[in-house]
Specification:
Chain A: It is found in: Cell membrane. Chain A: One of its GO terms (cellular component) is plasma membrane. Chain A: Its main location: membrane. Chain A: It is a peripheral membrane protein. The complex is a heterodimer of chains A (about 280) and B (about 375). Helix content of chain A is about 35%, strand content about 25%. In chain A, the strands form two sheets. Chain A has a six-stranded mixed β-sheet, sandwiched between helices. A four-stranded antiparallel β-sheet of chain A has the order 2-1-4-5, covered by helices on one side. With about 375 residues, chain B is mostly helical. Chain B is built from 13 helices and no strands. In chain B, helix 6 runs antiparallel to helix 7. The chains are: A alpha/beta (about 280), B mainly alpha (about 375). At the A-B interface, strand 6 and helix 3 of A face helix 10 and helix 11 of B.
Chain lengths: ~280, ~375
């Protein structure tokens, strides 16, 4: 879809969004606005932000630091009030946070006094209150196994490495079976080796579950490897969607295949050109 | 081998790590590199204790001499040289009736300590004999529906210690039951915080004596019909009210400063208020709550002495006051014994709290 970069960027900034049939749309951001009042007057972080995300789509969001990516994501999560416009999930406007939108935070945010199993159960118990105890344990254990932690069920979260903690975070988010998964730079604090491993884990579990995902990242390669579409945000204030890039690699993907694909460097150049202007 | 590792861990856990070093010395496990640390941890404190006792001895000796000279001079002025000579001889002979009354020396204090222990043994034996003697009679009285006869003799020094500990724990429990829940509510709700802030700021610095008087006013009226001795009730409530502030403030602070990430997790998972408090807020603020409780216990122990003294409630405070009023020749030494006992128990209470804190709190970075 998006082939000619330079033209798109300058002319029609909100192209490509709002064009899906409503039955396909999972997440809809319409004329979204965020204003922080300051002593010197209002500071507009986001304005006229329009974005639609399809069911079973993986979207990564890339943009400069401080452009309002995290603000947007926490608004979708319901943790940050909306100043204007609306956000809807399957046509229903969101009101506050809820387990239909799972979040994987930048810091693992596990309760350090709980074991990894207890951390996952905390969410599972909440979402499946009518399941038996055994069923809930099975769900939690299943997802911990999926992220490669079958030997660490009873380890205290504070005893796990950062990478392992984030694995628990992934298991916790998937285990509550959300409609939308929101990831706020989940691998930003990890070293590049662990980061690669966790990307593989994430994409593996995602291929099975196909939960609509919105992920913020600073890493261009990560954005291409994981996404169906990469959304580029303009720098704030008054940030909005700058450009959208479709990634047409077929799934399931392997890192090797992606790196060797002819289009890879074209995509990469597109993103870097956007970020450098 | 395994045993000794656990023991070492336990002592370290309780903040008594130096005991392990002493044990290593005797079992010959000490490496050369450990020698410096051994010197620092064991020899230096031991030397400083000896130095302290030495200075104390010299100090008390010089005070004794000043007091003795003054006494003799006074006798010389008032009663003439013969009386002065007699007094000098009396003091030199070490007779208890004419000893100068001043700071006792370490050996006097040690002697008093042993005499207090002997006294305790005598009283305990007396008490045991009394109970044995009245056992049959008491059974009969209970069967007849009358009150049993109880031992009403003078409590021993050790009994006083246990009475004091009882008062302190009752007061501490009261402080815990008031301050922790209240602190949680204040920490969770900014409205409650502003409602209670003035209250905390004004009452926190109030002196124990005034708290005692306030509690006395209220409890006296509430228990007006009761024949029971209210001194225990009054003193433990006063101790609780004096000491609860640290816990209240720390709990409120801990609860209101829970990591925002945890709160966000709770929000995303839509945890109910009950679950949010017990699964997220409380565990994460436990370290701060325990810091507060530790302060509370040490404050409770500190104000206890003053409050027992005022309330005439049996315990170490009353013991100290009675000895001071008593003015017997070994009274001063007994007061110093009580001082050390108070200090040592305070230290042990603090270690106890530290142990519990390490036990329950998740942040075990410097424990085990």
């Amino acid at each position: 879809m998006t082939t000619n970069i330079i033209e798109n960027k300058t002319s029609n900034l909100i192209k490509d969004v709002g064009s899906f049939p409503s039955s396909q749309v999972m997440l809809d951001l319409k004329n979204l606005k965020k204003v922080y009042p300051t002593p010197k007057g209002d500071y507009v972080v986001l304005e006229d932000l329009n974005l639609q995300i399809k069911k079973e789509e993986f979207v990564t969001i890339i943009g400069h630091s401080g452009c309002g990516k995290t603000t947007m994501l926490s608004m979708i999560a319901g943790l940050n009030p909306i100043s204007g416009g609306y956000i809807s999930v399957l046509g229903k406007h969101i009101k506050g946070p809820g387990p239909d939108r799972g979040v994987i935070f930048q810091a693992p945010s596990l309760m350090p006094w709980m074991t990894s199993l207890q951390n996952v159960l905390l969410g599972v118990n909440q979402v499946f209150p009518h399941a038996t105890k055994a069923q809930r344990y099975d769900i939690a254990k299943y997802y911990l196994q999926k992220v490669g932690l079958e030997d660490a069920f009873d380890k205290k979260a504070s005893d796990l490495s950062q990478g392992m903690q984030q694995r628990v975070g992934i298991a916790r988010a998937f285990a509550i079976k959300p409609k939308v998964l929101l990831l706020d730079e989940p691998f930003g604090m990890l070293d590049s080796l662990t980061r690669g491993e966790l990307q593989d884990t994430l994409i593996e579990i995602w291929n099975k579950e196909k939960i609509t995902a919105v992920m913020i990242t600073h890493d261009v390669d990560e954005a291409i490897f994981l996404a169906d579409r990469v959304v580029m945000m303009t720098s704030g204030p008054k940030a909005k969607i700058g450009d959208v890039l479709d990634i047409d690699f077929e799934r399931p993907r392997t890192r090797k295949a992606v790196l060797e694909h002819n289009d890879y460097y074209k995509y990469r150049k597109h993103l870097i050109d956007f970020l450098e202007h | 081998m395994k045993q000794s590792i656990t023991l070492g861990k336990v002592t370290k856990f309780m903040g008594l790590g130096f005991l392990g070093t002493i044990k290593d010395l005797f079992t010959g496990k000490l490496e050369k590199e450990d020698l410096i640390s051994f010197l620092r941890k064991v020899v230096v404190p031991f030397a400083s204790i000896l130095l302290f006792i030495g200075l104390w001895h010299m100090g008390s000796q010089s005070l004794y001499n000043i007091e003795a000279e003054f006494k003799i001079e006074k006798a010389l002025e008032d009663q003439g040289p013969a009386a002065a000579e007699a007094l000098r001889a009396c003091i030199a002979s070490g007779e208890s009736g004419c000893q100068p009354n001043t700071l006792p020396s370490p050996s006097q204090v040690w002697a008093s300590y042993q005499s207090l222990l002997r006294d305790h043994n005598i009283i305990s034996a007396d008490k045991a004999a009394f109970i044995e003697k009245t056992a049959v009679l008491n059974e009969k009285r209970i069967a007849e529906g009358k009150d049993p006869i109880t031992y009403t003799g003078r409590p021993s020094f050790v009994d006083q210690i246990f009475r004091s500990l009882k008062t302190v724990f009752a007061g501490f429990l009261l402080a815990l039951l008031i301050a922790v829940p209240l602190g949680i509510f204040i920490g969770l709700s900014p409205t409650l915080k502003s409602a209670f802030n003035w209250f905390i700021q004004i009452f926190k610095p109030v002196s124990p004596v005034v708290w005692y008087l306030l509690v006395f006013m209220i409890v006296k009226t509430l228990l007006i019909d009761s024949n029971e001795d209210s001194s225990f009730t009054i003193s433990f409530i006063s101790v609780g009210l004096c000491s609860m502030w640290a816990t209240l403030v720390n709990t409120a602070m801990g609860v209101s400063s829970v990591d925002k990430d945890y709160i966000n997790v709770a929000k995303v998972l839509k945890l109910g208020p009950f679950q949010k408090i017990f699964k997220v807020v409380l565990p994460s603020s436990l370290p701060l709550i325990f810091t507060g409780l530790k302060i509370t216990l040490s404050v409770a122990w500190m104000v206890l002495i003053a409050i027992e003294l005022l309330a005439q409630s049996p315990g170490l405070g009353l013991f100290v006051w009675e000895e001071f009023q008593n003015g017997a020749n070994d009274s001063n030494a007994k007061i110093i014994v009580a001082m050390f006992v108070i200090g040592i128990i305070g230290f042990l209470l603090d270690r106890l709290m530290l142990t519990i804190q390490n036990w329950v709190s998740f942040d075990k970075t410097d424990a085990i």
